[in-house]
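Priority: medium. Attachment 1 of 2:
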């Protein structure tokens, strides 16, 4: 909710203006002296000021109003200020408008004109703030794309911007990185960004998905095997560590590695040494390891399924990827990437934004491919994506989960206080979000 400061020495005027604005869903604070007004603007986030021109008895020159105007603008040069003047002060008010005042209203004011002026200035301020944030983010993304190889990653959210920045920073070092996040959230793409921007970019980059391999073959896959080491092994098998020597090995679904394999992996990380299955000959390699998991490894450690010492070897730095539902700004950007020559209806966009995406980016990509195949021309509608429980008839009926205070605070940080984005994140109207922020006493 936009916070408006009213400055007037007359309590009756303060009460009248406050009531008018509050019934139109504005948050109002009042001050009777210039000193109080300056303190409020200095320490609170004020969207707009309504100020009188005189604050002392029997004073009509307007000088106090001029001084206050310049004092407030010195604190916040972009703060919109509407002057409320008597007819005798109109000339002074016009001079202040030339100096940057947003508007002036003569007493007695017209309620409708005042509300229109306030609404226009608040909307303009919101747009400027949002555009400033978007422009800054776009510049950062463009700069990253120009200076670095982002391996085709598409994103628009602040959350992913932070992940990308961290990945590019980690690319400069050789520390082990653990990437965590739900399936389909883009862990492999982040690993690629780290590798392709590192000093090892031209060296081998070997990927292995431990979750896709039979348990009895994982060790042979990683460390290799001699002929006859296991059933069906007719010749020597070179493992992924040998193949990645001098480069980078990406171990996806590391939580699926059996304990015997974990012990060997720990040894490789510590010394660079291992033996192929069925061999006593020690191999030595120099490999950077990037690992990923969707599992809660701390729980696996407590249950005895994952070695704690290996966890800390792998997790020198952890990158936590949020689920797609937690970074809604990426949804339409990704949809446009997957459907580059197709137009989406408003209802289709709302359906995509409202869907929970349990399968994350992978599910969104599949939904876009399916829609493009089933409807090869024309505007794509919500029903073309066949999203469960989210057709064009029930989007408006979708229940909204009540956010907790911690979730609101996290979203406010993630979206840098841009109310429109936070509201969209939770599926709330701006006014509904404002009420919750006030309820939890969260500054905005």
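Attachment 2 of 2:
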């Amino acid at each position: 909710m936009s916070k408006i400061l009213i400055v007037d020495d007359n309590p009756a005027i303060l009460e009248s203006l406050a009531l008018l604005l509050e019934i139109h869903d504005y948050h109002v604070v009042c001050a009777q002296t210039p000193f109080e007004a300056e303190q409020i603007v200095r320490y609170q986030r004020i969207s707009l000021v309504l100020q009188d021109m005189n604050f002392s008895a029997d004073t009509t020159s307007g000088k106090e109003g001029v001084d206050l105007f310049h004092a407030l603008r010195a604190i916040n040069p972009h703060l919109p200020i509407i002057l409320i003047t008597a007819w005798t002060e109109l000339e002074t008010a016009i001079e202040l408008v030339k100096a940057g005042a947003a508007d002036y209203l003569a007493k007695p004011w017209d309620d409708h004109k005042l509300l229109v002026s306030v609404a226009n200035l608040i909307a303009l301020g919101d747009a400027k703030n949002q555009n400033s944030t978007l422009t800054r983010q776009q510049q950062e993304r463009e700069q990253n794309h120009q200076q670095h190889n982002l391996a085709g990653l598409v994103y628009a959210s602040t959350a992913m911007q932070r992940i990308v920045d961290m990945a590019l920073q980690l690319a400069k070092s050789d520390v082990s990185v653990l990437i965590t996040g739900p399936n389909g959230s883009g862990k492999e793409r982040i690993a690629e960004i780290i590798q392709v921007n590192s000093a090892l970019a031209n060296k081998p980059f070997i990927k292995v998905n431990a979750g896709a391999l039979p348990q009895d073959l994982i060790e042979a896959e990683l460390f290799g095997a001699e002929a006859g080491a296991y059933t069906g092994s007719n010749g020597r098998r070179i493992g992924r560590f040998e193949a990645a020597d001098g480069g980078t090995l990406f171990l996806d679904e590391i939580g699926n590695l059996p304990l015997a394999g974990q012990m060997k992996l720990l040894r490789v990380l510590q010394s660079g040494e291992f033996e192929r299955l069925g061999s006593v000959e020690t191999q030595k390699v120099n490999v950077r390891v990037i690992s990923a998991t969707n599992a809660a490894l701390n729980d696996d450690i407590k249950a005895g399924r994952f070695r704690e010492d290996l966890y800390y070897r792998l997790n020198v730095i952890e990158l936590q990827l949020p689920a797609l539902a937690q970074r809604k700004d990426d949804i339409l950007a990704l949809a446009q990437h997957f459907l580059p020559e197709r137009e989406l209806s408003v209802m289709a966009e709302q359906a995509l934004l409202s869907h929970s995406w349990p399968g994350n980016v992978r599910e969104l990509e599949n939904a876009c491919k399916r829609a493009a195949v089933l409807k090869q021309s024309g505007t794509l509608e919500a029903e073309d994506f066949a999203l469960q429980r989210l057709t064009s008839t029930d989007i408006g009926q979708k229940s909204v989960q009540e956010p907790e205070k911690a979730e609101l605070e996290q979203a406010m940080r993630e979206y840098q206080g841009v109310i429109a984005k936070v509201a969209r994140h939770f599926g709330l109207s701006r006014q509904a979000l404002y009420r919750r922020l006030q309820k939890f006493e969260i500054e905005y």
